[in-house]
């Protein structure tokens, strides 16, 4: 964030420097089980109405899409979506899903 400005209507404008685009991450074999999960989420009536393009080949984009769609706490979403290394983001998501499955919350 390079600077912010509070408007009279209490909205905040910000000047930001965008992050560089990530290089595509071929989907690792250990993440193939995420594809049916994404498909299930995309079939949900509310999500289907968004008409999202499924991210099936890029591990980083797949992790982003799942982090956005999964019913997980906002703090978990924030942690995942602010991870700048796509492989680490994917691994963090896999770890989170494993924990949720072990606790019976998935």
Shape: globular
Distance between termini?
A: 36 Å
Proportion of residues in β-strands? 5-15%
- Give the neighbour order of strands across the main sheet: 1-2
Helix content: 40-55%
What's the number of helices?
A: 5
State the major sheet: 2 strands, antiparallel
Structural class: mainly alpha
Query: What does the average pLDDT come to?
Result: 93
- Are there runs of 5+ residues with pLDDT below 50, and where? none
Number of strands: 2
Radius of gyration: 16 Å
Oligomer: single chain
Instruction: List the secondary-structure elements in sequence, H or E.
Output: EEHHHHH
Walkthrough of the structure:
This protein is mainly alpha-helical and 106 residues long. The chain contains five helices and two strands; from the N terminus they run ββααααα. It has helices at residues 34-43, 45-48, 59-69, 74-81, 86-102; strands at residues 3-6, 12-15. Strands 1-2 form a two-stranded antiparallel ribbon. Strand 1 and strand 2 form a beta hairpin. Helix 3 crosses helix 5 (86-102). The chain starts with a strand and ends with a helix. The mean pLDDT is 93.
Q: What layout of secondary structure does this protein have?
A:
Layout: E1 3-6, E2 12-15, H1 34-43, H2 45-48, H3 59-69, H4 74-81, H5 86-102
Antiparallel strand pairs: 1-2
Helix pairs in contact: 1-3, 3-4, 3-5
In short:
With 106 residues, the chain is mainly alpha-helical.
